[in-house]
Amino acid sequence: MKNSLILFPILFPQIAALIMGIIKFKNNKRRNIYIGTVIVLNLVFIIALLSTNQSMDFHLIKINNLLDIYFRIDKLGILFVLLASILWIFTAFYSFVYMPHEGKEKRFFLYFMLTLGVTVGIAFSGNLFTLYIFYEYLTLATFPLVIHSGSKEALRVGRKYLIYSFGGATLALLGIILIFTLTNSVTFMEFGILQGLTLDNKDLLLIIYMIMFIGFGVKAALVPLHSWLPAAMVAPTPVSSLLHAVAVVKSGIFALIRVSYFIFGSEVLYEIRGNYYISILVVLTILMGSLLALHQDNLKKRLAYSTVSQLGYILLGIVLLNEESLTGGLLHLVNHAVIKITLFFCVGAIYFMTEKKYINEIKGIGKEMPITMGCFAISAISLVGIPPTNGFVSKWYLALGGLEENKILFAVILLVSAMLTAGYLLPIVITAFFPGEEKKIIKKEPPLSMLIPIVTLTAIVVTLGLFPNIVLHLIEDIVKGIV
């Protein structure tokens, strides 16, 4: 029964969301206290659960080796669940101020809490079947957030989101069934469940891997299946930050790591050359995301295409199949999440205070909103990867991973992409701080309760650059156990 406690951080936010849908709060302050308490308590319980230092697993329902709802805590799941839970708290407190601007707050926060429970379920999934169930559930939980405004454009984008997500999940399910017919197992195992098996049909294994990578890769915005992500910018800024930094795209990345290292294993992928074919799509993702970002005048859309490119970095870390590259990929998963959520919060603050959405509208706004734009500038420099920022550390490991495989081309691509990143982010900073003309300065900083999450996250960005060992030791432990 003790192991059943693993279900608590999965169910607690979802039950709390349903309760919130039933009860009526006297005012928004009480509702916000309720939501904040639930999300903070969930993190506290997760930390308490992890601090027992016991390997914990639990079969909720088991019909056979495939139809098995199974939860297990391992180091990779710990990294993902802590990242998501911590950033969820920042998003909640930011949303308390931002969402009255958008309306329909109660519905937003209901699905907001529901999605937290689903994300924890993904982190603690012990096999592919359980991961798949929560992966599909994530699409359903985030769909109302994407179409929040209820406009024609939002509904059109919502349909696109469902088509892409369910299409990718169908491919993933096909791959799960095929891998089960070969191995009679879908349980995650260090170095993969195919380890030690005789590989009679390498072509079939390659096809299965490609199907699963592309299927799960939809949520990771793998080119050419990425267009749902920029379209989803129609959603409110807190939703955008969740989609791009934590919940959806990082769940896609997490699933791909599980498939690559806990189902197939690096040795098998080398043998079937699975990484070779996927790396072509990954390089396209890195370069196309950056090139498309250069042509966007809408601030959120520029950040959206930036996410496509940056996710390509993490995917590159996965498919290079060595310790340095995967260390860089996991480190960039963390760094990108913190950087990108900060950038979205800054852009959201600009829209909240000025109603401005486009780069050509924000000339001189750095003098009106110096703290907000200062945080944006620091985060932008970090995403470019200029030393000694956290973005530099993760990209350094990715470059080492490419060189270890004697593939200098990958290191060159990383360098070119970094220059393109500078090309689409730094002009925003220059436009904001150096308008080229003097104008009357009216301070427009957002309320303190919105500014505190932005400044705190920026401080975390700086700290992760100066002291990368905070997360690096955990990541190195994960990598040594699976590569």
Number of helices: 19
Query: How many runs of DSSP E, i.e. beta strands?
Result: 2
Overall 3D shape: globular
> Which whole number gives the mean pLDDT?
89
- What does the largest sheet look like? 2 strands, antiparallel
H and E order: HHEEHHHHHHHHHHHHHHHHH
User: Which stretches are poorly predicted, pLDDT < 50 over at least 5 residues?
Assistant: none
Helix content bin: over 70%
Widest sheet, order of strands: 1-2
In terms of structural class, how would the helical and strand content be classed? mainly alpha
- How many angstroms separate the termini? 33 Å
Query: Whole-number radius of gyration?
Result: 22 Å
Percent of residues in β-strands: under 5%
Question: What are the key terms here?
Answer:
mainly alpha; Multisubunit sodium/proton antiporter, MrpD subunit; oxidoreductase; oxidoreductase activity; NADH_UbQ_OxRdtase
Summed up:
This protein has 483 residues and is mainly α. The chain has 19 helices and two strands.
